[in-house]
Design a protein that fits this description.
alpha/beta, two-stranded antiparallel ribbon, 12 strands
């Protein structure tokens, strides 16, 4: 989230437009230089031979995929120095005679492994699209099989709710400071190289190693930001680009992008509450939206006073909202959320509860970092964009949000480890270009909100946007079946034809 800084860069109409145009031109020129120069020091990386072999993965192997490690510089400013490995997978085009090239990808996060991501995306493609592309999955640098970041956190998630009051917020401050310090102590200087710009550079090395002049791309969630950064840094290398559930590149980071999640998740909570209220005989949260909300909010308050003991875990007001958050990104998850919340409510009431495997797995990650911690997510976000350091600023935002966002305001506005992180090694990428791109977005997305997709649409002036109206889902193509959206994506990948204008689709 996921899986999901800085102030919004909306341009003022006259003078700011001129200034922005100058900045865009300068940035585009610099990025074109990066793409075209192909410094001789990278020749040894571009000419490497890959050792393709079985992936040893239960999803990739049946799909006929092969995997390989690509060697890339740790620091592109010193390409003769240390290196690292980036793991990729390849599912070959089904018809060599129709093959157009390769399609790179990113499944989001940031920090999400993506080796098997294209199994799902490929399943949404029509046969004539699958015929044209080698589908390339990737664990980005610092993630999964790619020399992963591991800060040895005692918990898995770098995001949590700020809780019900100032005392709970102070606990968050201490926690996030500790997580940042652990990363600095364990990973040291390597952290500053785990960035989106360096991952975009890795993608261009992968392009060269695969012998391609241009690459197509499918990214969802954070992967849309990575794809947009790639088009900015290497515009002439971009072929057919699809960004599903987009980040606004002006709001990307651990602050503004996350703050946008507050209202969207409150709205999704209302929809879930309606769904649960219609099934009160099964879940017993109340027969109306208001009753369900009141039950949930009371549970959060009670968990602050007395953490809920469930299985091996103590669950308090920092975590109860996150149990809701992880399941509200698709209507298909509503029943799971209801079961999880029922278990928490029963445990809080002192009833015997056998924790479900799904909730046990989620809590194990969030609270005990099992099977692994999520420090790569924070390494990327904090390494990309600086966050405000004033702890009082975050508390002020939390308190201001409570009235309209009683459940998710303390999460969306909470402090993160980025407040205690070292300054980024490079400025954040300003995305403004005319690379043709198809953006697809649901209006009810709880992770990358609809206004974020509109921001991406503005940043990519030659793009077109396909809106899925009145559906609260994050990641559509390959996850949420919709004929209208799927047709537009497949048509673009097949023919390179963007819609003449932006399109609105409805639920099937």
């Amino acid at each position: 989230m996921t899986e999901t800084g800085g102030t919004t860069m909306h341009r003022a109409k006259a003078l700011m437009g001129v200034l922005a145009a100058g900045l865009i031109a300068a940035t585009s020129a610099a990025c074109a230089t990066e793409a075209e120069s192909g410094p001789p020091a990278l020749d040894r990386f571009h000419s490497q031979k890959l050792d393709w072999k079985s992936c040893g993965d239960p999803r990739l192997d049946p799909a006929g995929a092969q995997c390989a490690d690509v060697t890339v510089p740790l620091d592109y400013a010193e390409p003769q120095g240390k290196t690292m490995k980036v793991a990729i997978s390849r599912i070959a085009a089904t018809d060599p005679a129709q093959r157009r090239g390769v399609m790179l990808s990113n499944s989001g996060g940031p920090g999400g492994p993506g080796l098997d991501f294209m199994v799902d995306v490929g399943a949404a493609m029509t046969p004539d699209v699958r015929a044209r592309y080698d589908l390339i999955g990737m664990d980005p640098r610092g993630v999964g099989r790619s020399d992963p970041i591991n800060c040895r956190w005692p918990q898995g998630f770098g995001l949590q709710s700020g809780g019900i009051d100032a005392a709970s917020y102070a606990e968050s401050v201490a926690t996030q400071r500790d997580l940042a310090q652990r990363c600095a102590d364990v990973e040291g200087d390597r952290l500053r190289h785990i960035t989106t710009r360096n991952t975009a550079r890795d993608m261009d090395v992968i392009r060269a190693v695969l012998g391609e002049e241009r690459v197509s791309y499918f990214g969802t969630s954070y992967g849309t930001y990575l794809g947009a950064v790639y088009t900015q840094m290497f515009p002439e290398r971009a072929d057919r680009i699809v960004l599903d559930s987009s980040v606004d590149p002006d709001r990307y980071g651990a602050v503004e992008m996350t703050r946008d999640m507050g209202p969207a998740n409150e709205a999704a909570l209302d929809l879930w509450a309606d769904w649960v209220a219609q099934r009160d005989g099964e879940y017993h949260f109340g027969a109306t939206r208001q009753q369900v909300r009141a039950t949930v909010e009371d549970l959060i308050r009670r968990s602050a006073a007395t953490p809920i003991r469930l299985g091996a875990y103590d669950i308090d007001d920092h975590t109860v909202p996150m149990v809701l958050f992880i399941g509200l990104d698709t209507p298909a998850g509503y029943a799971d959320v209801a079961v999880n919340m029922r278990q928490l409510a029963d445990a809080a009431a002192g009833l015997p509860v056998q924790i479900s495997p799904e909730l046990d797995k989620a809590l194990a990650f969030m609270l005990t970092a099992k099977p692994e911690d999520g420090s790569a997510q924070m390494a990327i976000m904090c390494g990309d964009v600086a966050a405000p350091r004033d702890t009082a600023w975050y508390l002020s935002n939390i308190e201001a949000a409570r009235a309209k966002e009683p459940v998710f305001g303390p999460f969306a506005n909470n402090i993160t480890p980025c407040a205690f992180w070292a300054a980024p090694s490079e400025p954040a990428t300003v995305v403004r270009n005319a690379v043709p791109t198809l953006i697809v977005q649901a209006t009810g997305d709880t992770r990358t909100t609809y206004n974020n997709a509109q921001g991406m649409r503005r940043a990519l002036s030659a793009s077109r946007m396909v809106t899925l109206q009145d559906v609260p889902v994050h990641w559509i193509f390959g996850r949420f079946q919709n004929k209208c959206v799927y047709d537009k994506v497949n048509t673009y990948f097949r023919d390179g034809t963007l819609p003449a204008e932006d399109v609105t689709c409805r639920i099937d």
